[in-house]
Structure formats: structure tokens, C-alpha cells
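Hi L.,

You mentioned the student needs an example of a multi-chain input paired with its predicted structure. This one should do, with 611 residues in total across all chains.
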Amino acid sequence: MARTQVVYERSHGLKDVETHYCPGCHHGIIHKLIAEVLVEMDLLDKAVGISPVGCAVLAGDYLNCDFVEAAHGRAPAVATGVKRTHPDLLVFTYQGDGDLASIGAGEIVHATARGEQFTTIFINNAIYGMTGGQMAPTTLLGQKSTTSQSGREAARHGMPLRMSEMLSTQDGMAYCERVCVVDMPNLHKAKKAIKKAFTLQMQGVGHTFVEFLSTCPTNWGMTPVDAGKWVKSDMNRYYPLGVFKDLTAKKEAAEE
Amino acid sequence: MPKELWKGNEAIAEAAIRAGCRAYFGYPITPQNEIPEYMSRRMPEAGGVFVQAESEIAAINMVYGASAAGTLAMTSSSSPGISLKQEGISYLVGAELPAVILNMMRGGPGLGTIQPGQADYFQATRAPGHGDGRMVVLAPAGIQEAVDLMQDSFDLADRYRNPVMMLADGMIGQMMEPIEWKETEPRPPVEKPWAADGRDGDGKTHFVTSLRLQSEKNERFVQSLFEKYAAIERDEVRYEAVGCENADLLIAAFGTTARIALSAARRLEKEGVRAGLFRPITLWPFPSRALRELAGQKSVKAVMTVEMSMGQMVQDVRLALEGMKPVTFYGRTGGMVPEPAHIAEAAKKTLSEVK
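Structure written out for the whole complex:
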């Protein structure tokens, strides 16, 4: 009799539905990581996600927990309203670069400054995806978009924003890390980062923030494989991976 | 209960807490600053949440978040700030979330003045935000009424899962009046099975959203909203009519202006002119049928509308009467408050023109 062993199964932190995301887009992978962490931390029943305006507007159709859809850029304010009135819930926002770094720049700066006890999942793919490839606040110099058709120029379009670096200067930020999911080692690191952020949130340490360098093969005009390579080669150079803030690390060091 | 002297803004804030409000999000703007100030010290005492938001936009979205998770919340502002909140109000309508929004109106447009105004009538009653939608709009004419209507605002918001606006003016916020705190029954807890506050026991999730990508689905939703609005129009109309029986002239006015118009009516009575005051308390739904019935009396020769604007509610008066009687308008705007003598003059002019 053949013995079978389950080595991998679909997380029950995800709903059993088909994806609308494009081939090669990393939203699906990042959704899966969040789902796995919620299951492993036994938080599915007490988690509330805040979805953005953009491709991830339907995140609540995929993740098997409660969701609130926010107006464009307002997820940090909506999350503040949820978490302040329901401090026992795990609250996380899921925002793209246009949502968080452009139209919602004010909201994320002040939510961080107040040390709001929710977790931001920031998806930086350097372009507006849903609206069809316009220039984002994080579009790289030289990168072509439908509103910077000869490539982004500093003199005409300004410089791309580094949100993790900027927000980490604020005292309300407890933990901030930039990750990507282009290969297995990075994927494991990314999952750890989500878990750490959620853990610190439940401990009430301050604002927690995980930035994902992500892909948009459709609007970048690349194959999924080339898009993954471009994250490593070009995006990594301007947006280095790593931990930008960790209040608990300082505490641990002091204790040692 | 004995009467106490209260400033309007503070009384309204206290009334909200007594009505069971446990979350307030706001941003400073004159002439309603005493509300966030009062809330900042009183709300934590009452076990509630106070956050001074970084912007009007953030404040209304914090209200949206609190409400989505099942906590009925409020915000307050004044005219320019309400313009900023309109995006969030539209989302509240679209996600069918209860909320209470107070507009302590000042004179506009633009930055305008910090003196009282009523020129946000269109904004409140016609287009609380983009898309098809309505707010219940309550207009108190004094501090006691504002206090009493606060309880009703929260009840209406919860009952219909829709934002409710209290539309007052800077006069009501800034003046002091003796008021009585009436003993009210505590609001019974409202069941909110739709709230995004964690999955149900059977693993059922909640998704609070105003996105309905398929047009057919979105149209069906908007149609269902308007079935709700038809019920509100049927059941929630409020108004006050003073001395309208057998009157020669009806004066239609709301809020502070209605009180001044009442002084004018008393002045006219001494001169032998019978002028009645028709005061809508709900600006939406507008008390059209009641106004039509009173204006339909043989004695009534005309209806004069008085507002602190260039004439906004007067459109609803005309729509209600459908040409049945002449409608005239007298208004001051941009922060100016009409005087009883001038309203009385305008009333006599109206009557002389229609005779």
C-alpha cells in the first residue's frame, strides 16, 4: 500500500477562488504569505485587513479574514479607526505605491508618527498597475511609463520616493523592513518579516511596516521571468533590502 | 431637571457622548473648535476614543474605519472642512455605514468668513459626495434642540445604515443658552452582523466595501439605497409650524434664521399682518407635503423663504409648491445675519406685490 504524505497544501487563510492578478504579478505570492502567517499565528478569526484602491482592491476576496475597502490612500486612517476602537484585533493595511506614497502620503506619515498599532503591507512595483501603467511616486529614473514615455527624468518628474527610509526616521515606527519575493531565500525572509510585524503589533510596540518590492510585468512590458530579474537588478539598487528600523533589536542589544 | 447654561458646541459634544457615541475624530476649524477640545478631555472619561486627525480627510476616514468595525462614530467640522470630507461621506453611503457628521456652517465660498452662514444647504441636501446618495440632514434652531437631535442622529444613522448630518450654523455653536438634560433611556445595543470585527464562529468573513464592479450589481445596489431613502422620506420628515393657521404669509426658514424670522413674525402681528413660520427640521427629507398643505390654505397669499445664503432652500420650497402660490426670497450671506426688521420689511413687500 502506497503511503501518501502531504508536503504542501493551499493555505486555508486563502479563499478558494480564482485570481484576477496578471501572470508574473507578485500580489498572489504576498497574499499567500500573509494568509500563512495569519493561520500560523491563529489570527484568522480576529484579523481585519484594509484594502486599497488599485489592483489589490479585491484583496478581501482572496484572504480568508475580514476586510474593509478604503478610499484611495486613506487606508492608514481607516485602520486607525478600526484599531483604536477595537484594540484586540490584528489590523493590517495593504497598499500600493500610488495609494501609499502619492495620494495617501499624508495619512501614512501621520499614522506612523502617532505610532498607530497596525501593520502596513506596502507593495512597491514602481508603477500604477490598475489604471494602466502611469508613473508612480516610486517609478525609477529612466523607467518608462504611460505618463513618462521617454523615461522618468529628475528635472521633469522629480526623484522617486524611498518610503521605508523616510518613515523609519519617525519615533512612532517600531519595525520597518524592505523585502521581496523573487526567490525562495527572499520569500522566507519576507514571511518572517510579516510574522515579526504582526507579533510586534499584538505586543503594542508601535507602527510596523513591511515594504515589498513587487512586479508588474504587464505594465513594465516584460515577461514574468525578466520582471523578477529587474526587481533584483534595478529596483534593489535604488531600494535596498533590509531592516530600517527595529525598536526591539535595540532593546535586545541593551539587555545583552 | 434644572436648567444649565451651556455653550452650543460643548453642549452638542456632551449630547453626543450621552447618546452613546464612543469615538470622535476631528480636525480644528472655526467656529466649532470647542467640540474637539471638549471631546479630547471628555471622551476618554467616557471610555471612548478621541483622535485629532491630521486632516479632515483622515478624520472622516477614521470614522469610516470605526463604523466598518461596528463602532458608531462621529466627526464635526465647518464648511471648508466638510468639502474635504465629501469623499469619505460618499464612501460611507456606498458602504452603507452609519455615522454622524456635524457641520457648524460659516460664510463661504472658499475660505470665506468664520461668521455664521447657511450656504451649505445644497451641499448637504443635494450631493453629500459623488454618485447617487443622500444624507438625513437635521437642522436645529437652538442649543436645546441640537442636544435633543443628537440622540436622534445616532438612532437614525444606525437604523438606516447611512450617514446623518446635523447642519447647524456658527451662531448655534458659539452662543450660550440654558438647556435641560432630559433623562433618556440608554440606547439599546444595535446588532451589526455586517461589521468587520473578526470572523463569525462559522468562519464567515465580512467585507465592507463600496466597490461593485459589475454595473448591473451596482445599479441594483443604488436602487436598493433609494428604496431605503423612500422609507426615510415616508417616516422621518420633521418640521415645526408656528402660527401658520389662517396666516396671510408663510415664512419658511431653518436653523438660526428661523428664530429671527419668528421675531419678525411677532413684529408683523403687531402691525396686523398674520405671518406664520414654517421651519423644516429635516432638510432632507424636506417636509414638502406639510408645506404644501399649509400653503394651500385660502388665507395664504405667498410663501417667503429667508436664509443666510443667496437662496438655496427656496428651491425646495418652490418644488414643494409647484407654482401653487408665489414664492419670494430674502437672504443675507457671507457671514451676515438677517435682522427681524429687515425680514418684516421684506414680508410686507412680498404681500404688497402679490395683492
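You could point out the following to them. The radius of gyration of chain A is 18 Å. The first strand of chain A starts at residue 47 and ends at 51.

Best wishes,
N.
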